[in-house]
Amino acid sequence: MRGKSTEKSLLGNAAILSAGNFGAKLLGAIYRIPLTNLLGGVGLGLYQMVFPVYCILLDFAGAGLPCGLSKLVSENVAKGEEYKNPALLKTALFAMAVLGGAASLAMALFAAPLARLQGNESAGGAYVALAPAVLFVALLSCFRGYFQGYMKMAPSALSQIVEQGVKLAAGLSLAAALLPDVAAAAAGAAAAVTLSELAALLQLFIVYRRGRKRGYWKACGDFPQKATAAESLKNIIKICLPVTLVGVILPFSQAVDSFLILNILGKYTQSATMLYGLFSGGVMSVINLPVSLCYGIAAAAVPHLAGGENPRFALYLTAGLSLLAACVCFLMPRLIVRVLFFSLPPNEKDTAMRLLQLLAPCIVLMSLLQTVNSMLVARGRAYLPLIGMGVGVTAKVLLEILLLPNAQMHIYGAAISLNVCYFVAVLFNLLYSIKVYRNKRGSFPERARREDEGLVGKEKQIGTEAGFTGKYKTNRE
């Protein structure tokens, strides 16, 4: 019974986050359709050029916090040490304000050199317009992780809807107002991202203040004991640093993509910016939509798995949903492209259709990677995803260097390389996970036997389950 109740709880929390994330991605896809038709391939390429560097700065500024902070908060609640959580949040906010502010300043100051290095100086304005968003995202990631640690997924889900809604309204308005200057219109669309992150941050702060008044989460003064800032910072760094480094690798590789694709393709085609825009901005926005459905499973799984739950249900659910979506994209690319990117010229539509088919496997691979990474982080193996992603990205970059110079392959070489990247990373992490769970932590049938005998939840130390060192309260359920 307990196994079914935890699966139901995981499914409920995952559904909330997935609904919010899917709704946000749907709004994002709806936004990308008129934005693509408004800016065209070149304008979209300028808009997309700034995001790889932006994502790297986001990850350095603590994009790994939601997952890591969720784990720490849920552990403290389970161990009866909730008094540590307010200090965790305050310390995280202070650290992210410093890191996020520095990252935002760096992005604005180096906007022009970055745009020149990427091969198109016109993207400089978009860099400046997007820079403040790094600070806002760093701060709101603290609140998202805090809420998720308390199993309250609705605030995070709602913030994603607010974020995308503001971006849609402001982005289309600013881009349309600044046309026919394509560079200025791209900068206006980037400024809308900054406004959207600020709106999401304010929404989460309001929810937090209201929750405090209603007693959902207590203030430091409500506890006889308080955790020190030094202790909180140590715990945050210990769990969040490897998660952050994992997050940095992929956007770093995307930044490398923007340099490689634009510069290599630019040697034999005048359409390099357009091809990069279709790949990273058009087709990848479609691919990311179903992946967002599975994000909720990965995020909701962290507090559950940190308490010693079995990961199979999360993996099966992820595989089933992502495989269905991948089949749709592979079998119906013409319909999807015609509906979503109706104003593109015929040659650009053909390119988008082929890219969509080639990238369909990425839906399954990206979704599985999210869940497997969350499983490893929750079980105290946070550095494993870092190694797996590093191996995958290395394979991708090497393959791009080989494939992109081929004029017949051109942008399709980037799509093939991305599939290889995620396949290698998923395979590495899954093989290690199977080895750990079966050889070191006990087999799954053993887990079921212990659940049936009522042992799980009564143990003060889950030593046989994951080598996980946290002590839990008796009958924490």
Number of strands: 0
Roughly what is the average pLDDT, rounded to an integer?
76
Structural class: mainly alpha
Radius of gyration, whole Å: 22 Å
Stretches where pLDDT is under 50 for at least 5 consecutive residues are 440-477
Largest sheet features = none
What number of domains? 1
Percent of sequence in beta strands:
under 5%
> Count of helical segments?
18
N- and C-termini, Cα separation = 12 Å
- How helical, in percent, are the residues? over 70%
Please specify the SSE layout and strand pairing:
Elements: H1 2-49, H2 51-60, H3 65-78, H4 84-109, H5 111-117, H6 124-130, H7 132-149, H8 154-178, H9 182-214, H10 229-265, H11 272-306, H12 312-331, H13 333-340, H14 346-378, H15 383-403, H16 412-440, H17 444-452, H18 463-466
Short description:
This protein is mainly alpha-helical. It has helices at 2-49, 51-60, 65-78, 84-109, 111-117, 124-130, 132-149, 154-178, 182-214, 229-265, 272-306, 312-331, 333-340, 346-378, 383-403, 412-440, 444-452, 463-466. The protein contains 18 helices and no strands.
Describe the structure.
The structure is a single chain. The chain is built from 18 helices and no strands. With 477 residues, it is an all-alpha fold. It has one domain. Helix 13 packs across helix 14. The C terminus is likely disordered.
Search tags:
single chain; 81% helix; globular; 477 residues; 18 helices; disordered C terminus; mainly alpha
